[in-house]
Write a structure and sequence with these properties.
This protein is of the alpha+beta class. Helix content is 48%, strand content 9%. It folds into two domains: 112 residues, Potassium Channel Kv1.1, Chain A (2-Layer Sandwich); 33 residues, no CATH class. A four-stranded mixed beta sheet has the order 2-1-4-3. The longest helix has 20 residues. It is found in: Membrane.
């Protein structure tokens, strides 16, 4: 048993011995430098203030300087104080935390990423809520975003039942009135279907 214990101790020191043998500075000869500054120092600017943002129960931490770089956005402006909860010390938003992760990347890096698995309409709603322009989208995601927007627009046009209803009415009036777009009765009926 003692032999196993000795082997475990030897294996713990083995990397240090190897490091000394190849010329690295042994830890035992040089002490680690003292902490240059502590939180008790008068220079508090080194320890930057963090904002804790709670998005539907998921907490995110971000430097306030990152948020303040974009004063035209919701989180970069003083308007974010409206969402501050003094009891918890957090900013609370009842939004989608999965998409917010990408919004937070915008504040940290300066460009947006589009999550392919998310709904493009929901993504745009989140951008509008936080007042971030979609033009900040990174080059890597630009095509995917616009392809998703185009596909969504096409899908919405296919689902719109009103054009089919209008075509049926047009066929009926063509047989009764000739060219329906020219008659006054058809124009009146057309107005009633569109409103």
């Amino acid at each position: 048993m003692a032999q196993i214990c000795d082997m475990a101790q030897a294996s713990a020191w083995l990397p240090l011995v190897r490091a000394s043998a190849i010329g690295w500075v042994p830890i035992a000869q040089h002490r680690l430098p003292k902490n240059v500054c502590t939180k008790d120092d008068s220079n508090q600017d080194i320890y930057e203030k963090k904002a804790i943002i709670n998005v539907s129960g998921q907490r995110f931490e971000v430097l306030t300087s990152s948020l303040n770089q974009y004063p035209h956005t919701l989180l970069g402006s003083d308007e974010r104080d409206y969402f501050y909860d003094e009891n918890s010390g957090e900013y609370y938003f009842d939004r989608d935390p999965e998409i917010f992760r990408h919004i937070l990347t915008y504040y940290r890096c300066g460009h947006l990423h589009y999550p392919k698995k998310e709904c493009v309409m929901q993504y745009e709603d989140e951008l509008a809520y936080f007042r971030i322009a979609s033009e900040a989208l990174g080059d890597c995601c630009y095509e995917d975003y616009h392809d998703s927007k185009r596909e969504n627009s096409e899908r919405l046009l296919e689902k719109d039942p009103q054009p089919k209803r209008m075509l049926k009415c047009q066929r009926i009036f063509v047989t009764d009135f000739g060219r329906p777009s020219k008659t006054q009765s058809f124009l009146l009926l057309r107005l009633s279907f569109t409103t």
